[in-house]
Design brief:
- Helices cover 43% and strands 20% of the residues.
- It is α+β, with helices and mostly antiparallel strands and 104 residues long.
- The radius of gyration is 24 Å and the shape is elongated.
Length: 104
């Protein structure tokens, strides 16, 4: 056999498809309280959740009127990081703003 000739079994490589698990997504909600200012909530939505000013204001008003509002949907690790960032920034500014996350 010439070194450039391949046995048919060698030429065909069978690959098993690997099952790719799609990560679960989580909804992050901001919770209303009687102390955190509307301006601060809007700032949080712009800085941490990267919302534009109009969308941030709409979400803030929804939180104010309904008790909670959806800030975004993320993988678990990102959702946890966003929540920690909100709580850290809120504590630095003396606000009790809280977030929750729920599996989608």
């Amino acid at each position: 056999m010439d070194k450039f000739e391949l046995n048919i079994d060698e030429a065909i490589e069978i690959r098993e498809r690997q099952k790719v698990n799609v990560p679960s997504l989580y909804k992050v909600f901001l919770l209303n309280d009687d102390y955190t200012t509307m301006d601060f909530v809007t700032r949080i939505l712009e800085e941490i959740f990267h919302k534009n000013p109009v969308e941030a204001t709409q979400i803030m008003l929804h939180v104010h009127k309904n008790g909670k509002g959806l800030a975004g949907i993320f993988t678990r690790e990102i959702a946890e990081t966003k929540i920690a960032s909100v709580e850290d920034l809120s504590n630095q500014h003396g606000f009790p703003l809280k977030c929750t996350m729920e599996k989608e």
